[in-house]
Amino acid sequence: MNKIYYKLRSGLTINYNPSEENYSIWDSKEGWELVVNKKLILFMNAYSLATTKETVFHLLRDQFQVDEKTSAEVHEYLYEQNIISEYIPLETNVGTGKGGIFNTPVMSIDQCLEGDWCDLVFIGMPYDLNVTHKPGTRLAPGYLRRVSGSLFQYDGTHLKGAYDPIEDQQKLEGIRMADCGDIHSVVFSKNGKEFDALEELIGRVIRKGIFPVTIGGDHSISLPCIKGVAANHVKIGVIQLDAHSDFGMNSFDDWRDSVHHGNFIDAVLPVENVEHVIQIGIRQLTQEKVSHPKIIQYPGKSVFNHIEELKTILRKDIRYYLTIDVDVLDPSIMPATGTPLPNGFSYIELMNIIELITEHVNLSGLDVVELLPFLERDIEGVMVSEIIFSVISKVMNRKDQYEHHIKNSNVSTY
Ligand SMILES: [Mn+2]
């Protein structure tokens, strides 16, 4: 039979009141306070590490001659008062749930960050207030959670990953993943606190050495992602696969008033430690030519004529963030997007670029944006799932190297 473990709840504060000669326990989260005697505090201490009821009884019997009946009563009391709660050790907890991207377990971000078991998290950002044309990308995270399982089913118990018959290779073997759900709000506000929440979340994930995969949402959600990644590295580069440059040579007084999905790069460029933004696939018509010292652009499919040049531009000594706007693909294969443009990448062209990028740089994060799903059909969702699978399996393949950098750089990786 499985043992049941209990553990002291986190966030409790103990105060000694000298005048009353008693103690009080205060829960800062829920706001209650409970006056208790010293003996109960000693009882509570016994649960500071996850333990069983029986272990606590044996401990306290030897120390304070507590009998079994009293021990059981006090245990019940602590449990009813919500001072101790059941504890499920992570090793058995991870992987039992389902419902996330690739059927990964859905769990809180605190669970993802506890210990060092987690390699990769999916984050949903169902935000499309910043579209200039057609909303609906907010539905993409939920849609991908439903559809992605038909491409790959994560098995958190055996961690076998998946066998790819084309490359004759086992992928994502031993990699632990979770889905920490959506950044949520009853009502989203334009460039509001949900952006701050996403930025902070990405920062926490990065500092833990976990690879974040954010599912948009419109393209403006890349701004908080990039800021969160940039804040935790000395320098980063951004690689943007997109039909549109999302850049207009604007300087914003307040980005919160002005940023939308067609200009968010204007807010990325001033981020000091963003070394450069490499734009691939751009084919949108603009009023006039615009350029910026930090932007390196390979319009349309021109990148394929400049592969060697690109390899020399991609730096080995900095980290990169990859943002994939699905409209980089040709609308004949990817019509599920808000602002499609003809003559985009074929699927294999996109895969070739992804291969080149993942081989030549160290990625610190990925987002996939602008997927505006036709909810009644799965094909575009499966395609985007395969794009995500392709990037993460290549990045995780290099995980040893990745961890090496984290360990040797004290939080801030180069
Ligand atoms: Mn875009």
Characterization of the model:
- The protein is 32% helix and 19% strand.
- It is α/β, with parallel strands linked by helices and 414 residues long.
- The strands form four sheets. An eight-stranded parallel β-sheet has the order 9-6-10-15-14-11-12-13, sandwiched between helices. It has a three-stranded antiparallel β-sheet with strand order 2-3-4. It has a two-stranded antiparallel sheet with strand order 1-5.
- A hairpin with a 5-residue loop joins strand 3 (22-27) and strand 4.
- Helix 7 (193-207) crosses helix 8.
- The two termini are 48 Å apart.
- The model is unreliable at 404-414 (pLDDT under 50).
- Residues 219, 242, 244, 246, 325, 370 line the site of manganese (II) ion.
Which helices and strands occur, and which strands form pairs?
Elements: E1 5-8, E2 12-17, E3 22-27, E4 33-36, H1 38-45, H2 53-64, H3 68-80, E5 84-87, H4 90-93, H5 109-113, E6 120-125, H6 140-147, E7 162-164, E8 169-171, E9 177-182, H7 193-207, E10 211-216, H8 222-230, E11 236-241, H9 255-258, H10 265-268, E12 274-280, E13 295-298, H11 307-313, E14 319-325, H12 347-360, E15 362-369, H13 379-397, H14 399-407
Parallel strand pairs: 6-9, 6-10, 10-15, 11-12, 11-14, 12-13, 14-15
Antiparallel strand pairs: 1-5, 2-3, 3-4, 7-8
Helix pairs in contact: 2-3, 6-13, 7-8, 12-13
Manganese (II) ion (MN) is lined by residues 219, 242, 244, 246, 325, 370.
